[in-house]
Each structure stands twice: as structure tokens, then as C-alpha cells.
Amino acid sequence: MITPTKQINRFFLLATGPLLGLLIALFIGGANIDLNRDKVSFAPDSEIPQVTGQIAQKLDAAEGAAKLTASSIKETAELYHKTTSTMSTIVETAQQSANRPEAIYNKRITVKLGTPFQTIQSDKIRIELYKVNPGTYKGYAMKVKLKSPDAMKMSLGKDKLGGAETTLRAVQRHGAVAGINAGGFADSQGKRYPLSTTVLNGEYLTGFEPTFKDLFFVGLSKSGKLIGGKYKNKADLDKLQPSFGASFVPILLNNGVKTTIPQKWKTSPLRAPRTVIGNYKDDQLLILVIDGRDENGSSGATLPELQDKLFKLGVQDAYNLDGGGSSSLIVNGRVVNKPSDGQLRPVPTHFLFFK
């Protein structure tokens, strides 16, 4: 159907036909213009309708071609969008399928902990807090998924060797969302020094000390994995690329197997406030902080009890950190546990978690 606009355009084309026909006929109709000797010959008048008709036919053909091209472009665009949408759906489905085993495993280990009473979520970390109360002791479990290696760090008391501060103060100074006490320590000349091998920002603070007695090293690798164990050679620890870590006693689980707890640590003290760190098969961390009235051995948890608990929870590797009055759990600026000293104890090393 020809629109009014097209009719007007065609009228002017026909009205100017003689002139346009003359010019266009040179290329289309074969008309000749002889400019030699000031003589000009035009195509006969009888040929003008034929030429204009040809022009109209070509215009119709061009219009049809334009419509066909526009239609093809539209169809191509629609096909492109459909293809893109389909590919997006395929990618999303594939991602969901890839994440399904992880989700199933997480559900399996989480159901053993119960229902979290607090959750912290960001693009760097996920923290879930649970209460632990098997009947013989009380405390808290903190399950941590590190989505980025820099979501966990270790701090040194007052940022200097020999310095000490409470975990709450360390959390506040560094802007962390959570924190626990880390390795053991020894006091000397009014200062508090971390025990044995200690790594901070990939550097050995006092050099490497070969493992002796029941001491172990535990920390995080540069890739964000929990590493730990006994190391007689520095090269063995270096292979794991430690980012940070501290030392204490003893190891509770190794590759999902219960280790032999030295008799000394089973009874000195028998029960006490405890801080333990471990990891699952999917590299999530589990931290237990157990309360107790004091360090006299009458309250808190025994190491075999915590070993059994961690084993049943499916933890693979577990390390006993400094306990007693040192045990501290800070979340969102609040002291979650009940320090046995009645107040937080200043210690030289802290594991901190960041949003």
C-alpha cells in the first residue's frame, strides 16, 4: 500500500520526469547527449514515460529491498537476543550444578552445628555463630568461609614484638569484624613474646625454630588455606607459603584422624577454657571457644572432649590454641565468650577476620 507521503514523492518525480529522465537515462536508458559543436540532442518525448516507469520500478525494488533488509536485521537481532538469553541460562545452570556439591557438603556439616544465632555476610567472608552445649561444657562455634585470602590476618600486640593487647583492642584498632586469640606466649622482662616460630606478613619474626616437644605451627597460606603441623626444616614450611601463623600445643586432628594427645596436656589442666581452630574438606574454618570459670581444672572442656567433638563435626585438621584466661571471641565489637579472668587478657598474637 502506497502512503500519502510516497504518493507526493512519486508525483514530484513524475513532474520532473523530463529533466530527471534526461539525466538518469544516460546511465539507465542509454540516452545520448552530444555536446560537440554546441549541438544537444535529447531522447525523444515518447521515451520519457518508459524511463520514468523504469525509475519507479527501481524505486519500488529499492523500497522492497530496504524492507527486506530491515526485516532481516530485526530477525537477526531477535535471534541474537534469544541466543544470548539461552547462553546466559546455560551458564547459570552450569554454575548452579557446579555449586551443588559444595552446597550439599555445607548443609551436611552445618546441620551438625544446629541453627546459627548470628550471621555475617560479605563478598569477602561469611561467618556463622553457633552455641555449643553438649552438657559437660558450654561455649561457641564460629564457622568461617574465607572468600578472599585477605579476609583473615594475624596481628601483633601493639604492632611490635614483645607487645600485648586484648583481642577486643586488636579488633578495634584494625577494623576487623571478628577476632580470636592465637598462639602461646612467654613473658620476659615485662614483655610478652609469642612462642617459637611466628610468621607475620610472610616474614619470620624471630627466625625459624625447628619443632620440638609438642609444639606446632598453624596459620594461613598466601592462597587463603589453613596450614599447620610440625616442621623440622624451614624449607618444609616455606613450601606451604605461609602468610602468617603462630605456635602452641597440641595438634588434635590430622587429615580427619585423631592424634595422640600427650598425657601432660590431658591433665594440665584437666578442664579449662579453650580456643581451637580447624578446617573442613572445603577449606571452611571452624573455631571453638569454650568457657570456664578458671584454669584450676574444674570447669571448661578437656582436650579429648574437644577432639571427639571436632571429629564428629567432620573437621579434618584441628589445633589447640592458647586457652585459659587467653581465650577470647570478639564479634561485631562485642565480647561473645566469658573470659575466665573476669576480663580480657592481653596477648601477643590474634587471628582477625575482615568484611
TrEMBL record:
<protein>
    <recommendedName>
        <fullName>Phosphodiester glycosidase domain-containing protein</fullName>
    </recommendedName>
</protein>
<feature type="domain" description="Phosphodiester glycosidase">
    <location>
        <begin position="174"/>
        <end position="354"/>
    </location>
</feature>
<keyword id="KW-0812">Transmembrane</keyword>
<dbReference type="Pfam" id="PF09992">
    <property type="entry name" value="NAGPA"/>
</dbReference>
<dbReference type="InterPro" id="IPR018711">
    <property type="entry name" value="NAGPA"/>
</dbReference>
<keyword id="KW-1133">Transmembrane helix</keyword>
<feature type="transmembrane region" description="Helical">
    <location>
        <begin position="12"/>
        <end position="31"/>
    </location>
</feature>
<keyword id="KW-0472">Membrane</keyword>
